[in-house]
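Researcher: Re-running this chain for the archive, since the previous output was lost when a drive failed. Same request as before.
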Amino acid sequence: MKARYDCSKCPGYCCSYPRIGVTERDIARLARHFEIPVERARERFTYRYASDGKEERILRHRKDDVFASVCRFLDPKTRRCGVYEARPTVCRQYPHGSRCGYYEFLKFERVQQGDDEFIPSA
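Model: Regenerated structure tokens:
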């Protein structure tokens, strides 16, 4: 399946998801990337989140000029992943197909606004 989206033209919508889940394998990958112990990576990059009786590890966020907050690894200038080679599995698999809803929305809005750089805000 050929991808019908171009992440280089997106401001990182998927990185603004409030919950970006990570596995122990993802944390170990980040630890290797930063050459730090796994426990230090777990503390530094993630936190435990509980909802509806379920618990998960999610990536920490930071404030952002485009969105309220984004994944701590999204580079604010380039709007690209700062740990691309070590990114979590969920990021590697996104958007699970040949199309990205965010990209489709972005293309539509840019056509409507007549501005190839337009970024819709929440």
